[in-house]
Design goal:
The complex is a heterodimer of chains A (about 450) and B (about 325). Chain A has about 450 residues and is of the alpha+beta class. Chain A has four domains: about 110 residues, Arc Repressor Mutant, subunit A (Orthogonal Bundle); about 150 residues, no CATH class; about 90 residues, no CATH class; about 55 residues, 2-Layer Sandwich (Alpha-Beta Plaits), CATH 3.30.70. Helix content of chain A is about 50%, strand content about 15%. Chain A has 22 helices and 15 strands. In chain A, the strands form five sheets. Chain A has a four-stranded antiparallel beta sheet with strand order 9-10-12-11, with helices on one face. In chain A, strands 1-3-2 form a three-stranded antiparallel beta sheet. A three-stranded antiparallel beta sheet of chain A has the order 6-8-7, with helices on both faces. In chain A, strand 2 and strand 3 form a beta hairpin. Chain A is globular and about 95 Å long. Chain B is of the alpha/beta class. Chain B folds into two domains: about 230 residues, von Willebrand factor, type A domain (Rossmann fold); about 55 residues, no CATH class. Chain B is built from ten helices and ten strands. In chain B, the strands form three sheets. In chain B, strands 3-2-1-4-5-6 form a six-stranded mixed beta sheet, with helices on both faces. Chain B has a two-stranded antiparallel ribbon with strand order 7-8. In chain B, strands 9-10 form a two-stranded antiparallel ribbon. In chain B, strand 4, helix 7 and strand 5 form a beta-alpha-beta unit. Classes of the chains: A alpha+beta (about 450), B alpha/beta (about 325). Chains A and B meet through helix 4, helix 5 and helix 8 of A and helix 3, helix 5 and helix 9 of B.
Chain lengths: ~450, ~325
């Protein structure tokens, strides 16, 4: 069901699917090594560290002794991941053994002992005129990102259009919007789910689309990935000279500015880019760790929603499943009603997604409480959803006039074994099976007679 | 405790006894640890009395530890490292990765770690030495483990209160000097408050005899205690055992205690004893018979047979 989510989580799968040569080239860059290390599951990180100073290979058997019996599946997952990313290479002589990728190994060893340097030197402060403070930068990044999202979901609502060409925007919208002929495009099911995800997941989804699209434009995926990961090691709020970038990176940095990853500034002679928190936290959000963001929504037992937010986007998101009653400068007040929920269910949002959204974005004051969303509200949302699912339609085939009871019973058993039996009436010897079992059933009955 | 040399220390030990009674179990800690973001508070033994006698030079030790800290910070961008130096007259914070990360030194984050740490450590050592000269008449050669433990716990409590999105804290003691029995009460109080707030204390003992305090600390708080056999490979020991985050600990084989030294120190003469007298009201431990408990003030009743207790005094507990 949540197709979008899977894509967003597995950005690393995309890295893993690069060709062996591209991957080995990526590991030439120590920053990529670090970013990739951070993206691994905790156990895999541990293994890399443990193997870091072991020259030569370690037997798979002796590695299995590192884990307790409970952790064996985790162990397999970790090893598979490491092999997939070519950090471990498998050697099969008599017994399976693993060794660390030598480039990766030397890069990390150097990093641990000498400590890494920054990817590039920040510009001295006398050249740059006035740098924004970290708060200003964060506000800028969020503003830019929300503006982008608004444009994504409905081009008319954005206050200032971004530089993305309309063809690029179409690529992003692919899968999120559906356009029925002559109607204005509306959000698709996965589009709604996309809106309910947290920022980092959304960002990764967009970046993934961006990267896969870049290949069509003839840009190497590996270059893009390496630049993105490198970007996350810059210091937020420092200015870096644009001239230190390659042509290709200069083009990309403009797109990243539209997403709020960097802020571009123009001085008298030079121009520079300032990475924002969104960029520097890119490599954090690669792991599955729970989102670390403060929420803003308070839900009361009387189905009212108070959202402490100034964002237009939040308002739009809440509007998806609630009735917005009034909007104050920093507060949005709404109510969850049966009608508003039916609207949401029609659009393909599930009750669990709504509840998950409310829980993830709970205001810190209510987030401490257990449960953060009142139980009666959760239950009612689920009840209203199940109201819609009281009648289920299944395409079926109906059989009757069996020649004998034996044939009828054999047919029933056969259908039941394939879990295709929907209904049977043994008195009158009639039965109904699911449409997909019909062909098998027909074959079976032919064999019987 | 009154003989403790520095002002800082006597203040801390006072705070400790109150902490022990007033700690509240922080809510939500018992929830399953889902990620590997960790806060490691490292207690670094800088006791010159130990390091001058040790066969393993302090500079080697420090280079192993620095590489280890780099490794911790590399594992996750949100990981945080705090280093507290345990001297023999005072203890102090010498490095906090959350503070220095925001400072923009010209030469980047990792070199900053080395530079700030070494500079602060040097300042600390000179200060610590001066304090030692002032109190020259009663020289204490042990490290102030109780002081640095309680500083670590205070720091962690502040992190707990900073909001729900804090990293998972743990304490790592890198200790070389032998136990100071005079700190027994303070250390035990610190251990119990760590246990209550569910902070594991890992300990790595690099001295000659094993430390009973550290064994108990790790045992009680659910941390790992290990005494490396080969100090040249300290880095590998640190990486393999002590770099393990709390989340992964439930899946990995880690060294298990082979027998913990549970001996206590008496409250009256600070001797390490394995049999003694215990106050039945407040559980204070004494090596000799007293008329009155020095901790809670309850008067002990006369033992049933005075002469019997005199001959067999180690086995006899005073009746209340």
């Amino acid at each position: 069901m949540p197709q979008v989510k899977i894509i967003a989580k597995n950005f690393m799968d995309m890295v893993a699917s690069l060709t062996a040569r591209d991957l080995d080239n990526l590991y030439q860059n120590p920053f990529i090594c670090e970013a990739i290390l951070r993206s691994l599951p905790p156990l895999a990180k541990k293994y890399v560290l443990q193997m870091l100073y072991i020259e030569g290979s370690v037997l798979a058997k002796s590695m299995e002794e590192w884990v307790l019996a409970d952790g064996f599946t985790k162990h397999r997952v970790a090893i598979d991941r490491l092999v997939q990313l070519r950090i471990f290479s498998e050697e099969k002589k008599k017994e399976t053994s693993y060794r660390l990728n030598p480039t990766f190994q030397t890069n990390l060893q150097k990093h641990l002992i000498y400590g890494g340097a920054l990817p590039r030197e920040p510009m001295p402060s006398n050249v740059t005129v006035r740098l924004p403070t970290l708060e200003e930068l964060e506000a800028y990044a969020l503003g830019q990102w929300e503006c982008f999202l608004l444009q994504l979901i409905s081009s008319a609502q954005a206050e200032k259009p971004t530089n993305f060409s309309s063809s690029m925007m179409k690529v992003f919208q692919r899968g999120l919007l559906i356009q029925r002929d002559k109607e204005s495009p509306r959000l698709s099911e996965s589009g709604f789910q996309f809106l309910l995800m947290d920022t980092s997941a959304q960002l990764w989804y967009i970046i993934r689309e961006y990267i896969s699209n870049s290949q069509e434009r003839g840009v190497n995926q590996a270059d893009l990935i390496s630049f993105l990961l490198e970007l996350s090691f810059h210091v937020a709020g420092e200015a870096y000279n644009v001239n230190t970038l390659s042509e290709l990176q200069k083009n990309m940095i403009k797109d990243f500015a539209d997403l709020g990853l960097v802020k571009l500034q123009q001085g008298r002679k030079d121009s520079w880019f300032i990475p924002t928190k969104l960029a520097t936290s890119l490599s954090i959000s690669l792991t599955d760790s729970s989102s670390r963001k403060e929420g803003f929504v308070v839900v009361e037992t009387n189905f009212r929603i108070y959202a402490y937010s100034t964002s237009k986007l939040h308002c739009e998101i809440l509007r998806l499943f609630s009735r917005i009653e009034y909007q104050l400068p920093n507060l949005i007040v709404g109510a969850i009603t049966k009608e508003s929920l039916y609207n949401a269910f029609d659009n393909g949002i599930t009750a669990d997604q709504i509840i998950a959204f409310l829980q993830q974005n709970a205001h810190p004051r209510v987030a401490e409480r257990v449960p953060s969303v009142p139980e009666n509200v959760c239950d009612q949302i689920r009840l209203w959803e199940s109201d819609l699912n009281r009648v289920e339609a299944t395409p079926a085939y109906f059989y009757d006039e069996f020649p004998s009871r034996d044939v009828f019973e054999a047919a029933c058993d056969y259908a039941r074994d394939r879990s295709g039996l929907l209904w049977e009436d043994s008195k009158k010897m009639r039965l109904a099976v699911k449409a997909e079992t019909h062909t098998h059933m027909r074959e079976f009955l032919r064999g019987q007679s | 405790m009154a003989s403790a040399p520095s002002k800082l220390y006597s203040g801390l030990s006072l705070a400790l006894s109150t902490i022990f009674f007033f700690f509240k179990v922080v809510e939500g800690l018992d929830s399953v640890i889902a990620d590997d973001v960790s806060l490691v508070v490292v207690l670094l033994d800088t006791n010159p009395f130990f390091w001058t006698t040790s066969s393993f030079p302090f500079s080697h030790f420090l280079s192993h530890v620095l590489a280890f800290l780099n490794a911790i910070l590399t594992l996750n961008q949100l990981n945080q490292v705090v280093i507290i130096a345990t001297g023999c007259n005072s203890c102090d914070y010498v490095y906090d990765s959350s503070k220095t990360a925001n400072q923009s030194f010209g030469n980047g984050r990792m070199p900053t770690l080395c530079a700030t740490l070494l500079q602060n450590l040097e300042e600390f050592m000179t200060k610590d030495e001066k304090l030692g000269i002032e109190e020259a008449e009663e020289r204490i050669t042990g490290s102030l483990l109780s002081g640095s433990l309680s500083m670590a716990l205070c720091y962690i409590q502040r992190v707990f209160r900073s909001g729900s999105l804090h990293p998972q804290p743990r304490i790592l003691c890198l200790q070389g000097s032998p136990d100071g029995p005079e700190q027994y009460v303070a250390i035990m109080n610190a251990i119990f408050s760590a246990q209550r707030s569910m902070v594991p204390i890992d300990s790595c003992y690099i001295g000659v005899q094993n430390s009973a305090f550290l064994q108990q600390a790790s045992y009680i708080t659910g941390g790992v205690h290990h005494k490396p056999q080969q100090l040249d490979g300290l880095f590998q020991y640190l990486l393999t055992i002590f770099a393990t985050d709390l989340h992964s600990r439930s899946f990995l084989q880690l060294p298990k205690p082979v027998g913990v030294d549970f001996r206590a120190s008496c409250f009256c003469h600070k001797n390490t004893i394995d049999m003694g007298y215990i106050c039945s009201v407040c559980l204070s431990i004494f090596c000799t018979r007293h008329k009155k408990c020095s901790t809670c003030g309850s008067t002990f009743g006369q033992a049933q047979s005075d002469d019997a207790s005199a001959t067999n005094r180690k086995r006899k507990a005073p009746d209340s």
